[in-house]
Amino acid sequence: MIPVITIDGPGGTGKGSLSLRLKRTLGWFMLDSGALYRALAFSVSERDVSSQDEKGLLEVARSINVEFLDDGLQSSVLLNGQDISNLIRTEDIGTLASKLAASASIRAVLLQKQRDFLKSPGLVADGRDMGTTVFPDAALKIFLTASIEERSLRRLKQLKEKGITARLARLSQEIAERDNRDSKREESPMRPAKDAEILDTTGLGLDEVVSLAEKLIETRFGKLQH
Ligand code: C5P
């Protein structure tokens, strides 16, 4: 069986940065499932499909082909061949992604697309329901948490680095609303799997979180080669 490590949790907990570091150390593939939902939201807004048009939304969901590229220094997200890495990082796209993600039929279309990323030698999958729904048999499941204050500050910094301006109070409110929608929805809500390891990253730097995660990996897979 091809091994999978799942990294779930709300936005701004550092899932993306941790997943990238682990996939590089392990030499595995990576699935940023949030980017898939964001790519769908981006396509829906580009094509001006109404959120009431279920058939149209499903057509877009079926048509998107998302790839993750990583040369070891920089990672990018391609949608049907177009680099959308920065275009999908706005809070507007995040909010639309989270609204679309509440639909059972959309999730069903994206479920298979997510599972198709599983390839040898292994997959690091990050999202909200990787450990509960998409890869329930994953060898290691990590669920990250952090205080809303810290998550908002991290998001603000990430957006600034990408040249996107945002206001902290508004960001914080949007993150809280998105958490609420993601954890309360009926279909595959965000929650830790029963067998997940919970890591609170509040006050921790990326290196510290990576090292905690690597300890968990070593208990499952043996010593890592750096
Ligand atoms: O992680 P990110 O902020 O990029 O995710 C955007 C949105 O996509 C989330 O707020 C969530 O609603 C949705 N999502 C999801 N299931 C996943 C990953 C993301 O519902 N596995």
Average predicted local confidence, pLDDT:
95
Number of strands: 8
| Helix proportion range | 40-55%
Unreliable residue runs = none
Strand order of the largest sheet: 2-6-1-7-8
Major pleated sheet: 5 strands, parallel
Ions, cofactors and other bound molecules:
cytidine-5'-monophosphate
Structural class computed from helices and strand pairing = alpha/beta
Question: What layout of secondary structure does this protein have?
Answer:
Elements: E1 4-8, H1 15-26, E2 29-32, H2 33-46, H3 54-63, E3 66-70, E4 75-79, E5 82-83, H4 91-100, H5 104-115, E6 123-127, H6 130-134, E7 140-145, H7 148-161, H8 168-184, E8 197-200, H9 206-221
Parallel strand pairs: 1-6, 1-7, 2-6, 7-8
Antiparallel strand pairs: 3-4, 4-5
Helix pairs in contact: 1-9, 2-4, 3-5, 4-8, 7-8
The chain binds cytidine-5'-monophosphate.
Describe this structure in words.
This protein is of the alpha/beta class. The chain has a single domain (4-217), classed as 3-Layer(aba) Sandwich (Rossmann fold), CATH 3.40.50. 49% of the residues lie in helices and 16% in strands. It has nine helices and eight strands. Strands 2-6-1-7-8 form a five-stranded parallel sheet. It has a three-stranded antiparallel sheet with strand order 3-4-5, with helices on one face. Strand 3 (66-70) and strand 4 form a beta hairpin. Helix 2 (33-46) crosses helix 4 (91-100). 37% of the residues are buried. The mean pLDDT is 95. The site of cytidine-5'-monophosphate has 16 residues, from helix 2, helix 4 and helix 8.
